[in-house]
Amino acid sequence: VQLVESGGGLVQSGGSLRLSCAASGFTFSHYYMTWHRQALGKQREFVAQISAGGGNTYYADSVKGRFTISRDNGKNTVYLQMNSLKPEDTAVYYCHAYNTNYWGQGTQVSVSS
After folding, report:
1. In whole angstroms, what is the distance from residue 21 CA to residue 76 CA?
2. Residue 8 CB-half CA count within 13 A
3. Rounded mean pLDDT of the chain?
4. Which pLDDT score is estimated for 57?
5. Are 60 and 46 within 8 A, CB to CB?
6. What pLDDT score does 31 carry?
7. Quick check: 93 and 36 in contact, CB under 8 A?
8. Alpha-carbon gap, residue 16 to 85, rounded angstroms
């Protein structure tokens, strides 16, 4: 099983980034997928969730209205579109197959003020 995140980087406050997570080794389309993040010195926290078919999404209050989770089951990939980024969004972002121990290695997002 592999989950490989990409798309992180350094962006100014107010900017946008799109994260991708490519999955392999399991039946991606059967699983809810989530994004989490962990800032330096803090606990990992939930960011967003999407249902197996993509029809239902759920967000942490801190990102609601700014971030959008989506997926392409044909490409075994889940995405996180992040707009209006703030310095407090700075963290390592991880994708996760819900209710499993499948985690990606993370991608760093840094937002400068």
Report:
1. 8
2. 19
3. 98
4. 98
5. yes
6. 98
7. yes
8. 6
Q: 44 is written with which tokens?
A: 């990992």
Residue 63 pLDDT grade (very low, low, confident, very high; cuts 50, 70, 90): very high
Give the Cα separation of 5 and 1 in Å (integer).
13
Spatial neighbors of 70 by CB under 8 A, at least 6 apart, are 50, 54, 78, 79, 81
18-49 pLDDT tens trace: 999 999 999 999 999 999 999 999 999 999 99
Q: Which amino acid is at 28?
A: F
> Any idea what DSSP says for residue 24?
E
**Which residues, 6+ apart, have CB-to-CB distance to 107 below 8 Å?**
5, 6, 7, 8, 19, 92, 93
